Amino acid sequence: MPLTTAQQVRLRISDRLRHADEVRHGDGSASAFKLAQGAPFSVLNSGASAFVPTTAGWSGTGATFETALGLVTFSSVISANSGWMVGYQWSVFGEEEIGYFTAVGGSVNGAALEAVRSLMFDSLRRTTWWAADGSKYDDTKAMEQLRALYDQLIDEEERAPAGGIESWSEQQQFYDGLYGNG
């Protein structure tokens, strides 16, 4: 089966869908919980499922999800120390964002450019820090890689052939061929 446009864009920007399972416990007062993924740096994709334990194992619930924020809300309060489990897929960009990038960019390459521009915008949050053990983490290097990817996508955009297959066929009358025919 061929890749969808959204899948092609995700492939270009390395934003594949990832799967996560979380098993946690209620506190006796809350019915809504923030998951590890979701705002501000990722979104949940459709198809998330929530489960609660029963004597026969895990049973699905009618929980609702706020995919942009990464919230799960159960229909009632989860008892203290009573477990719950959620399985979901997540990515940096949601389906709506990929659709927007595609509409604005006009092509897979253009959509990838829009996504990279979006990622470059949060450069002010990038920093370098050192851990107590002396190891160093330099998140500013991500901007160098984003700039390199941006330059590569711009180069591909500029080298893209103009016109469609029609312009190729129209130009064949001027083609001499490999052996000087014509």
List the helices and strands and how they pair.
Layout (H helix, E strand, L loop, with lengths): L4 H9 L4 E8 L6 E3 L8 E2 L4 E6 L2 E4 L3 E3 L4 E3 L9 E9 L3 H11 L2 H14 L6 E3 L5 E3 L2 H19 L5 H7 L11
Antiparallel strand pairs: 1-8, 2-7, 3-8, 4-5, 4-8, 6-7, 9-10
Structure description:
The chain is α+β, with helices and mostly antiparallel strands. The protein folds into two domains: 83 residues, no CATH class; 58 residues, no CATH class. It is 33% helix and 24% strand. Strands 1, 3, 4, 5 and 8 form a five-stranded antiparallel sheet that branches. The chain has a three-stranded antiparallel sheet with strand order 2-7-6, with no helix packed on it. It has a two-stranded antiparallel ribbon with strand order 9-10. Helix 1 crosses helix 2, helix 1 packs across helix 3 and helix 3 packs antiparallel against helix 4. The longest helix has 19 residues. It starts with a helix and ends in an 11-residue tail after the last helix. The model has no long low-confidence stretch (mean pLDDT 85).
Low-confidence stretches: none
Number of strands: 10
Rg, Å, rounded: 24 Å
SSE pattern, N- to C-terminal:
HEEEEEEEEHHEEHH
What does the main sheet amount to? 5 strands, antiparallel
Question: Helix count?
Answer: 5
Measured between the Cα atoms of the first and last residue, the distance is: 41 Å
